[in-house]
Amino acid sequence: MLLPLLELRAARGRFVLMGTVVLLVAALVGTVSGFTTGLTDDTVSALRRLPATHVAFSPDAKTDQFARSLVDERTLRGWRGQDGLEAAPLGVSLTRGTSDRGAEVDMAAFGVEPGSFLDPGADRGAPLGTEPDGIVISQDLVDEGLRVGDTVVVDRLGIKLPVTGVTGHSAYGHVPVAYLPVDTWQRLRFSTPGAPAGPSAEVPRQYSAIALRADDGAGLTGTDRELGTRTVPLKDSYAAAPGYSGERITMTSIQAFLYVIGPLVVGSFFSVWTVQRQPELALLRALGASRRRLLGHTLLQAGVVVVAGTAAGGALAAGIGLLVGGAVPFSLPAATLLTALAAFALVGLAGTALTLRRVTRSDPMTMLGANR
Amino acid sequence: MSLELSDVTVALGSGDARTTVLDGVCARFSPGTVTALVGPSGSGKSTLLAVAGALLRPDDGQVLLDGRDLAALGDSQRARVRREHIGYMFQSGNLLSGLTAVEQLLAAASIAGRRPRRLRHRAEELLAAVGVGHRLTHRAEQLSGGERQRVALARALLLAPALLLVDEPTAAVDRSQAGTLTELIAASTHEHGCVTVVATHDPAVSEVADHRLDMAALTGAATGARRADQP
Ligand SMILES: Nc1ncnc2c1ncn2[C@@H]1O[C@H](COP(=O)(O)OP(=O)(O)O)[C@@H](O)[C@H]1O
Ligand SMILES: [Mg+2]
């Protein structure tokens, strides 16, 4: 134990420098994974919390399905007639409104049938269906200035939506979600600005999609063919959320780069360091240190640098999260951070493995060469 | 513990540069005696020490340390012999950079599997005995050439090895220091009963030694008749 620590101290300048580089890359890893989680959350948390297993769209919509797909009531009845599953209509559209207290908000309007399995209920206030056109807003809309008792007037359409309840965090495509009774949603989705609004107006009985709760996905393709729908597992429907795929590709590729940069940086540091201390390594071998032991020393030193640097980088990332978390979609749960950093530390150590051969190859006989 | 070389042949270098440095060398060294290995530069003194010190495996012949043939041992076994039984002061390049004089000794102790903390006092004593007691916390880079060699000698003596190999101990020190070092080597050889071989071209050293072994008499045709410990 003594020797590797003495060596660390002897070369502390270089090790601190190296540790700092590891720290910064690790902080970047942590920050990027915070943004990845945060952005994903902000894009699909509303879909993620749907208590459904599958979503059936109309077959014409290939991308951005929640906005493009339309299914009618006959299809809904068809799905409801199937054994082994539950079906509930779902409407999704983006809108904006102004509250009677002057708060201007963007909302992702999720139309659900009150009492169906998609009904989010209410953590505070009253659930859907207690008041005509009453809506339940997500916590995110509370943060934007709405509260129970407010009435939101949908811009240009003039539809009045009294806020009756509040449910937890829910966002779709970076827009906070409000849950509406599905017939209210249909009015909102299919009304024309300027046209008379109100319960009397005739609107199509259509939905964006049908949420399914199926025991297993086996029989769904047959029903799809029969009813003319395209059913995907709930997870696959995330890609239908605006921006989801692009964000994922961006963030994943940044992370991938960091996971390559980390081990390369650590590996090249140790390879340079090993070359520089060949005379010391030869002397240690001449004094009787085994190859195994020199390997162990190098690994221990790499471990100290990588683990300390990564831990400090993680702390920095968490600090950054605390600073910016309110302003941008950043979410860094401890488990996510720890997983990302543990993976980073592991690949960092793997980088050292690249240099291990050089450590063991040092020849004690060069001591004899140094003799003349 | 005794050391015996029999028919040791070593060729160094490769291709055109390959030269036979030791050719059928036979020599025996007894415990508790200092043997001075003398000969001009390039005569193979350092090479012979390296063979005896389990650093260099001879191309032919046996190196018997207490009856065990070092030449037949594998790489890791020779490393083990080195750390457990051999104290070696190399001709140069002895110290680990960045470490203090005391740490040089403690590092060696730790390689040999000994508790460095227990040996600190002994290490400081030895450093004082070789005349660098005032340089205990100087790092290798802060020591002069002579001081480094003396630290290396203290390190070789630290664990009271069975085989003590010293390469040119007086090359970088003045006369009076040379005397001190030679006496120290002789004293600890007699006290611990180790086999000691000192490579030197310094007559002052060979005068103090119990035996004197001339490289010129060792190399050449192998007869096996020359014995180091025969007067
Ligand atoms: N790697 C090598 N290749 C070729 N010759 C070598 C090599 N190493 C040492 N020698 C030769 O071996 C001879 C003995 O060297 P050495 O044992 O250091 O002598 P000494 O210690 O007596 O000065 C020298 O002539 C040297 O040139
Ligand atoms: Mg020499």
TrEMBL record, chain A:
Its main location: membrane. It comes from the Bacteria. The keyword ATP-binding does not apply. Residues 256-364 form the ABC3 transporter permease C-terminal domain. InterPro entries: ABC-4/HrtB_transporter, ABC3_permease_C. The keyword Membrane applies. The chain crosses the membrane at residues 256-275, 299-324, 330-356. It is a multi-pass membrane protein. This is ABC transporter permease.
TrEMBL record, chain B:
It holds the Pfam family ABC_tran. The keyword Membrane does not apply. Residues 3-231 form the ABC transporter domain. GO terms for molecular function: ATP binding; ATP hydrolysis activity; transmembrane transporter activity. Keywords: ATP-binding, Nucleotide-binding. Gene3D superfamilies: P-loop containing nucleotide triphosphate hydrolases. It comes from the Bacteria. SUPFAM superfamilies: P-loop containing nucleoside triphosphate hydrolases. One of its GO terms (cellular component) is plasma membrane. The keyword ATP-binding applies. Transmembrane segments: none annotated. This is ABC transporter ATP-binding protein.
